[in-house]
Design brief:
tricarboxylic acid cycle, 18 helices, globular, binds acetyl coenzyme *A, about 400 residues, 3-stranded antiparallel β-sheet
């Protein structure tokens, strides 16, 4: 009866859907997913074709503005981004204040949020022109902050790399260039990183993207909305899975490589262990990104001549899961993060930076979703609840309790 009263009080029926498994929060024209068939398309273009033929910056433009750019549009976009890539000197002081051991995702979320203080005009965006200015600013500064979290961790002086390079090339240079060294870029790594960033660039209303949209729906600025997205991405059930996968593979290897033992743990309902990198909320057939990444991982390792025993553990787990009724019945397949860490590791990127790499890829998707939400004039996001607490209790003074 109480619930019926509460429902009528809201002038409508409230549906309860924990985890929003079947609740749509918006209409969107950005990314199409068909989980059962393993289809993923950005603005209508298949992920397979984009990963093979486009660059990350082209895909970023496509996601944000809806069309693949002409050569002129792409050059202008890149130049505008490059023109906004310098961060305020005082941001360096904030970075300096973090302990060297701080997790890079925490540092990245804080610095992204702090950018608002140094760019107050990015908050009140009232026109597409204001939006464009905020977008190129963050596309320019975010990779710098991401790369600098690694430089700080490695005790390297901060460096802007070389702005005459491509967007992705310069990310690598900013991350790895040693002082007084003419860092030469390996085209195989540039190509692999470009692909990885494209594969991570958008995935409709996932946890971090929904977070960006809901924070942005209060008309908080773009940068703080993105900072909230970075925090949401950090968790091991979402973007943090790529770090968790590698740590799990390492642990299995250290423990003698007995994949069967870990398969049994994953199936044991009294054991909190889950096979990280397996399962997906939407893909219940296969994750199309995982297929592309698996191929890219093989190519990168072969080209670099890396023989990583971790790959054998990964392949063993995948083989066993595909034949195991627990995984087959629940439609649990390797997801995008099962193989991405293997590539990052081959590139010399430390494990704590893996989720930062994911954030670099997801940045244009978050921006596109935020822009769409603002242009569509969506109302503030505000879910309802079914209240299950006490109906009414008379207050007792502290002496009566
Ligand atoms: N290992 C073992 N069992 C699993 C796993 C797993 N990785 N994933 C799901 N299951 C089981 C659940 O225990 C549950 O079993 P039950 O029906 O017997 O209770 C069933 O499969 C369904 O799982 P849910 O958690 O209800 O599925 P949901 O859609 O809520 O979760 C998620 C999806 C979070 C990705 C989950 O599969 C998981 O935790 N995977 C491991 C973490 C991971 O790889 N995350 C990255 C996702 S991809 C990304 O964010 C980019």
């Amino acid at each position: 009866i109480d619930i019926i009263n509460l429902r009528s009080a809201t002038k409508g029926v409230i549906t309860i859907d924990p985890g929003y498994k079947n609740t749509g929060s918006c209409e969107s024209a950005i990314t199409f997913l068909e989980g059962d068939k393993g289809i993923l398309r950005y603005r209508g273009y298949s992920i397979e074709e984009l990963a093979e033929k486009a660059t990350f910056l082209e895909v970023a433009y496509l996601l944000i503005f809806g069309e693949l750019p002409t050569r002129e549009q792409l050059t202008k976009f890149h130049n505008d981004i490059k023109g906004q890539s310098v961060v305020d000197e005082d941001v360096k002081k904030i970075l300096d204040a973090f302990p060297k051991s701080a997790h890079p995702m925490g540092v990245l979320a804080s610095l992204t949020s702090a950018l608002t203080a140094f760019n107050p005009s990015s908050v009140n965006v009232n026109s597409e022109e204001d939006m464009y200015k905020a977008i190129v600013k963050i596309m320019g500064k975010f990779p710098v902050l991401a790369a600098w979290t690694l430089r700080k961790r490695n005790g390297l002086p901060l460096d802007y790399g070389d702005r005459s390079l491509g967007y992705v090339e310069n990310i690598l240079k900013m991350m790895f260039k040693q002082p007084n060294e003419d860092y030469t870029l390996n085209p195989i790594l540039i190509n692999a990183l470009d692909k990885l960033l494209i594969l991570h660039a958008d995935h409709e209303q996932n946890c971090s993207t929904s977070t960006v949209r809901i924070v942005g729906s209060s008309h908080a600025g773009l940068f703080v909305s993105l900072a909230a997205g970075v925090s949401a991405l950090w968790g091991p059930l979402h973007g943090g899975a790529n770090q968790a996968v590698l740590e799990m593979l390492e642990a299995i290897k250290e423990d003698g490589g007995d994949t069967k033992k870990y398969m049994a743990k994953a199936k044991d309902k009294d054991d909190p262990f889950r096979l990280m990198g397996f399962g997906h909320r939407v893909y219940k057939n296969f994750d199309p990104r995982a297929k592309i990444i698996k191929k890219a991982a093989d190519e990168v390792l072969a080209n670099l001549g890396v023989e990583d025993p971790i790959l054998d553990v990964a392949k063993g787990l995948e083989r066993e899961a595909l034949e195991d009724s627990y995984f087959v019945d629940r439609k649990l397949y390797p997801n995008v993060d099962f193989y991405s860490g293997i590539i990052y590791r081959a590139m010399g990127i430390p494990v704590e930076m893996f989720t930062v790499m994911f954030a670099l890829g997801r940045l244009p998707g978050w921006i596109a979703q935020w822009r769409e939400m603002r242009l569509n004039k969506e109302p503030i996001g505000r879910p309802r609840q079914i209240y299950t607490g006490a109906t009414y209790r008379k207050f007792k003074s502290i002496d009566e309790r």
